[in-house]
Amino acid sequence: MRSVALLALLVLACDGVITPGPGSPAVEPLPIDPDPEPGPSRVERACMTRTVATQPLRRLTFDQYQHTLARLFGSLSSRVLPGTRFPPTTVVRGFSADAENNTVNTEQSNAIEDEAERIASLMLADPQPYLRGLMPSCTLSTPATDAQIDACIDAFISSFASAAYRRPSTAAERAIAKQVFTEVRPDQGATKAFIAVVQYLVQSPALLYRVERGAGAAPLQGLLELTDHELASRLAFLFTDGPPDAELSAAADRGELRTKEQLAAQARRLMTSPAFLPTAAGFLRDWLHLYEARAGKDTMLFPRYTAQVVQSLEREPVEALRWVLERSDGKLSTLLGGASLPVDGTLASYYGVAAPGAGWEPTALPNRRGLLTRASVMAALAMPAQTGTIHRGNFFRGEVLCEPSLTLPANVDISTPLMGTSNLPTARERLAPTTTSSTCRGCHVQINPLGLALEGYDPVGQYRTTENGAPIDTSGSVDVGAGLTPFQTGEELAALLADGKKVRDCYARQWFRNSVGRIEMPEDACSIATLQEAFETSGGDLGAVLVAVTQLDTFLYRRSPE
Predict the structure, then answer these.
(1) Which of 110, 145, 357, 511 has its CA 20 to 30 A from that of 407?
(2) Residue 417: what pLDDT?
(3) Number of domains in the chain
(4) What is the DSSP letter of 398?
(5) Which helix (H) or strand (E) holds 224?
(6) 319 and 257 in one domain?
């Protein structure tokens, strides 16, 4: 039986009042607003005033910095990338690229400096390949002479700085880099001075941060249009999680990113890039909290949860997304509620079905629908030895339905509500007091039904019908946009969620959050409503929602400085 101490850790008691918790934004997520009949549509109401919120300054994530180095060093990146000291991105809430997940403290600042020094040390140990690789248009002997490097340094600074900054470098920026060269050159020679310039550029603020100065006043009052290169960067980071490729940079150079049609065309092109699937899978990882799977499971209780299974579970969401985008209809409803999604031989055995043959092939699994009830998601949202009923339920209502967050009031004692039920066999019985207590029920009548519906999946995501020898009741009801609808199993819940308008609206909202790197503000109401309508009109097409992001005011403009 579960101990009272363990159960107490899972109880979230609250009085039903929605209040921001520690570190939460001052503004709650905007509620999903169904269209009333008759009257103006949701979009018409939201867009009566068109503006955008102030955009935070975002530092590159760990992955974005790695992708930037790969672009800058080209074939030499295999030497540069291993052993990085760049600070890792830790998702606290939201998405990896959110501004609040990539702040810089003293330790991280030191790590960024250490990374630049590490790269310089690699170059110093064997400079000739870097001289030739980074200055391909120069004629260099073996070894390169100081005079040859002197003749090429200005051209190198211009091209490398522009690539690093994702836009044409300014004369002032080039002068600073040249000053680094001229200060090192007299005492240490041209080769070390060249390496010092590289060391400076790979840690420069213009590379590390996604700086946007704007191109001038926009048609909407109080907003600035973005430059072509700023729009190119927004496109590149949204679709490939890295800097613009050569074609996108060239389009920006030619001024061919000024219309919505041009942006949409580039968006569709980037979705055919090899970098797109990993980027979209990264969105799934953050949205579904798959990073929580890093917490270890109790292998004594779950011996089938082997390292090989874990490896396949990590790939499962990526392969599901790949199959939906490349081989199926590209719809959210198929990803979240499809009868068949891919498994490999390892997961076929884990799920108890026949192996599909070589590689990953779509396979129907009993008692499951879509990705939400697959073991990769269920195990990630569970505790090491418990299912985490409340955690799962709170996740689904907050991240899949985008309901306003519920926060535990500071004055609630969580050590006593379950004292009388801790020895009962099932989670529904043990958690019953949370829906009857006056201090708990305000939140738990909203959280528990979703979590209890998923009790049919144990802490490592395997299907079960009993707990501690007692039958599990997974029935409940949920509102996915058409009022409360009953369900009997987790499979039925997943099917309802997959076809629910609230889920489609929430998915679009999550992509909005990912694109701006923050939680939404009241000023974003027009952009969010417009995105949700575009996604709905597309029938829930996964690609259409991304193209629609590039057409929003929040993508096209930035707010003027006060």
Answers:
(1) 511
(2) 65
(3) 4
(4) I
(5) strand 223-225
(6) no
Nearby residues of 376 by Cβ (< 8 Å), 6 or more positions away: 290, 293, 313, 314, 316, 317, 461
Could you tell me which of 251, 223, 221 has the C-alpha nearest to residue 236?
A: 251
SS3 (DSSP) at 205: helix
- Give the global pTM: 0.92
Q: In the structure, what pLDDT confidence band is assigned to residue 17 with cuts at 50, 70 and 90?
A: very low
Residue 296 CA to residue 100 CA, distance in Å, equals 26
Q: Using CB atoms within 10 Å of the CB of residue 192, give its burial: 0 to 12 exposed, 13 to 18 middle, 19+ buried.
A: middle
Q: Would you state the structure tokens that stand for residue 315, as one six-digit string? A: 């790939």
Domain that includes residue 535, residue range: 42-55+501-559
Same domain, 360 and 425: yes
As beta bridge partners, residue 470 has 467
Do 458 and 332 share a structural domain? yes
What does the pLDDT look like over 460-479, one tens digit per residue?
A: 999 999 999 999 999 999 99
Measuring CA to CA, which residue among 58, 66, 43, 46 is closest to residue 119?
66
Same domain, 311 and 459: yes
Instruction: Please indicate, yes or no, whether residues 328 and 456 belong to a single structural domain of this protein.
Output: yes
How many C-beta atoms surround the C-beta of residue 141 within 10 A?
Answer: 9
CB 49 within 8 A of CB 445: no
In this structure, are 99 and 51 located in the same domain? no
What's the pLDDT tens digit per position in 234-260?
A: 999 999 999 999 999 999 999 999 999
Closest listed residue to residue 466, CA positions, set 474, 375, 297: 474
Regarding whether 453 and 413 lie in a shared domain, the answer is yes
- Residue 258 is encoded by which pair of tokens? 């000024």
- What would you measure as the largest C-alpha separation in the chain, in angstroms? 84
Whether 521 is in a domain gets the answer yes
Task: Kindly state whether residue 35 falls inside one of the protein's structural domains.
Answer: no
333 and 403 both lie in a single domain: yes
509-521 burial, b if ≥16 CB within 10 A, otherwise e? Answer: bbbbbbbbbbbbb
C-alpha span between 193 and 500 (Å, rounded): 60
Burial class (CB in 10 A: 0-12, 13-18, 19+), 280: buried
Has residue 85 been placed in a domain?
Answer: yes
Tracing tokens 């009868």 back to the chain, one arrives at 339
| Distance, CA of 533 to CA of 526 (rounded, Å) | 11
* DSSP string of 405-425, one letter each residue: P----TT---SSTTTTTTTSS
- Note if the bond before 38 is cis, omega within 30 degrees: yes
Helix (H) or strand (E) holding 392: helix 389-395
- Model confidence over 179-228: pLDDT tens digits? 999 999 999 999 999 999 999 999 999 999 999 999 999 999 999 999 99
Assigned domain for 481 exists: yes
